[in-house]
Structure prediction request, 258 residues.
Amino acid sequence: MSLLFHEMVFGPVKSRRLGVSLGINLLPSSYKYCSFDCIYCECGWGRRSHKDNEALPSREAVIAALESRLAELSASRHFPDAITFAGNGEPTIHPGFARIIEDTRRLRDQYMPETAIGVLSNASMLHKPEVMDALRSIELNMLKLDAGTEETFRRINQPPSRLTLEILLDQMKQMEGNLIIQSIFLRGEYQEKRIDNTSDAEVEAWIRCVKEVNPQYAMIYSIDRSTPVDTLEKVGFDELLGIAARAEAQGVRVKVYG
Ligand code: SF4
Prediction:
């Protein structure tokens, strides 16, 4: 079963990584729209066609909904830890993303200056300077890196053909450390191929990549809800702690979420 968000502004919800978070969905409400099609995506399988831009909410509608919710929360003295762009796909695909971030910063400063702004992104749009600049301007710039080898990256995330792991890492390096890496660990089978980013070789390759990118820290976790590929296996908390210990021994700061 897929989990889709039906509102532009939702919550606040309790999030295992972000505390109390007010969510913003810039994508369509009835299906996932993303540049990746990750085998573990909680939104299920999605669409990538650019024609679907027509179904995206306007900047004005998003900002009006956000202002109304922030005003309500502020009046009742309920201040979330974060305002987070997540939802039914990749938020940076929205053509108005950079200006929406600008508006969100203005509203946050007005209604709840202590609240962080976060984006959960797959980093596929970092080639656009305005997306790069918008992500640099927020407190929680959380970019996905689920694999340290090209083969596993393609199997887990199913990115567009133009986007290799090398390009992705080069773009992440341009953030000059102003980012947080988010990585899922899992095992399973898809299209008769074994997928496992927890093997020694895969974990070492992932650590090398994270070190190259030099983030503030890496968030690691495993599957939490149902996934479109039903053979995927959740990696236990102790095993995640083991991966974190290996990374920390090589100078990478890691936070583990069970
Ligand atoms: S990048 Fe995120 S939204 Fe897109 S397919 Fe992967 S998990 Fe789903």
